[in-house]
Every structure is written in C-alpha cells, then in structure tokens.
Amino acid sequence: MQTAQELYTYEIITKEQTDLIQKAAECLARTFIGVDVSGKWVQEPMVGQLNIEYEDFYQFTKDYLDSTVEQGYCAVACDAHNNVVGVLAGDTNAPEIIGEDIFEGSFYDMNVILRVLEDVDKRFMDDYQKRNGKEIEDGELLHLFMLGVIAEHDRHDIIQQLGDKLITKASSQGLKAVLGEATNPKSMRVMEKYHNMKKYQDIEGNYIVHRYQDNRKLNGIPASVADGTYIVIREL
C-alpha cells in the first residue's frame, strides 16, 4: 500500500506553470461550488447559500492565483497522472478593505462573501493596530485564503502536507504569523488539527466572528452547518 507521500507529489507553483495554475483554479472552484468526494458532499456554506456559478467562481479563483502565485505561497498536490487533487493558496498581502460592491452580473452575490471577509479582516486589523501600535504591512503575515481537495483518498494527509509546505516556508522567510478566515466548522477543524491554528481573540478576549444569522443574505445557512466566519491564527 502506497502512502500519500508516494501517491501524490507536492510543489509550490510558479507564474510560468500556467497549466498547473489553471488546474489549481479548477480544483478550488469545484470544492467551493460543491463536489461529491467518496460519497460526501463538499461545499463552502456561503457559496452554497448564494447564487454563485462555477464559471464565475473559477474566474475569480484564477485571477487570484494569477495575481499572487509569484509570491510563492500556492502549493498543489498532484496525482500520478499530473491531475491537481489538492490546493492550498495564500499570499502575504496585508488585508485590503474595499468597502464597496465590485462584482457584477451573475457574480453579484460574491459581494456578500467579500463583505463578510472584509468585516472580520477589518476587525482583526484594528485589533492588530491596538496591540502593536502600527498597521499590518505586506510581507508580515501569511494569509491562507483558499483550500480545496478533491482527492478520493488520503485527504487529511494532503491537507497536512500542503500546509506544512507553506507554513515551513513562511517561517523560514521570517513571517510573524499565519492567518485565515474559517467559514465553517470543517475548515476550522482542519486549521486546528493539521496546522495548529486557533480562533483569534481580540484584545478584550472576544473571538472575531461574522455570524451568519445576523446577515439577511446568509441567515438561511443552518447553524448545524456553520454559524459564522472566524479569524484563525498561528504565531510563527
């Protein structure tokens, strides 16, 4: 029996690897929009609740990868046929708060997700400034933005390997912490179990969370599926 290390190869992709960037974007878009993996339905709850189509989400993902891949924080797992079966994509940009709708047409509801992420990111940035007396700058934190795994086997091992690759690199490059937005309990468990990340508590000891029940576009998400988007962090 082969181990997951033998079944899959792992690499951090570069701007020149356009074929892998495309495959990585496809893998991420499939897992966020919804995909059946070994009889289990995998889907991001906000994406599932809103009217978001695969083509639009794929384009969003591909644009993200195209703009951040040269930072060196997009890792992929490939199977023996060079299919991308797992992706963990991040960047070292300071969070950006746009504060207005930027998506149009059939992708309009992506603005709802953007607002949720901006809400928790802004509260984190404000808290960071209170603690450190300065704003976050580019290159300080590794922001893990998207994780998608469509492999039928050894999914957890793939998640572990992808995270280890990026976090080890971030640590070696002197970054201070790894940050993420966990949008559901499953991604929270993954972050905690495989990457030693924890829910972030602000200076007053409160979790930074955007609760779906308080959002009229997202309050249809059952609390049993997900209650909100949390900031998670790991100091390096």
Automatic annotation (TrEMBL):
SUPFAM superfamilies: Acyl-CoA N-acyltransferases (Nat). It comes from the Bacteria. This is Uncharacterized protein. It comes from Heyndrickxia oleronia.
